[in-house]
Amino acid sequence: MSHDEAGEQAIAVVRRNTEEVQGRGDFELFEELFADDFIDHTPQPGTTADKDGVRILYHRLREAFSDFRPEIHWQTVDGDLVTTFKTYHGTHRGDFLGIAPTGRTVRFDTVDAMRVRDGRIVEHWGVADLYGVVGQLGASGGGPG
């Protein structure tokens, strides 16, 4: 396999995770795409830095935003490391970070990097503005507005 083919394969793995696991809730595919020794270098609060932690996070997002939908803007690959810039969209219909459902539509941007080895995701680094979502849900606790 050429360097370009390996990069394209890595991008395809990350895209399938974004679109089919996160976007459609295909957790059987999740089990295939994530390596058992996966490490999350930037786990979200209330999760662990392993495969179980990501599974919990994905379930929480889909439970809180039943129409959770990722929109990939671009992806790039450097060796086995895939970087993705995307926007998530959803309607708040379930508990999220302790906030009861508001019915509000939210969107938040994420940039993340995932290392893909042998067709499986083995590492993750990411910046997700989940607390920006809290503000969109009107739970920032600030003054009138």
From TrEMBL:
A matching Pfam family: SnoaL
InterPro entries tied to this protein: Cyclase_SnoaL-like (IPR009959), NTF2-like_dom_sf (IPR032710)
One GO BP: polyketide metabolic process
Protein name: Ester cyclase
Species of origin: Mycolicibacterium arabiense
Lineage: Bacteria, Bacillati, Actinomycetota, Actinomycetes, Mycobacteriales
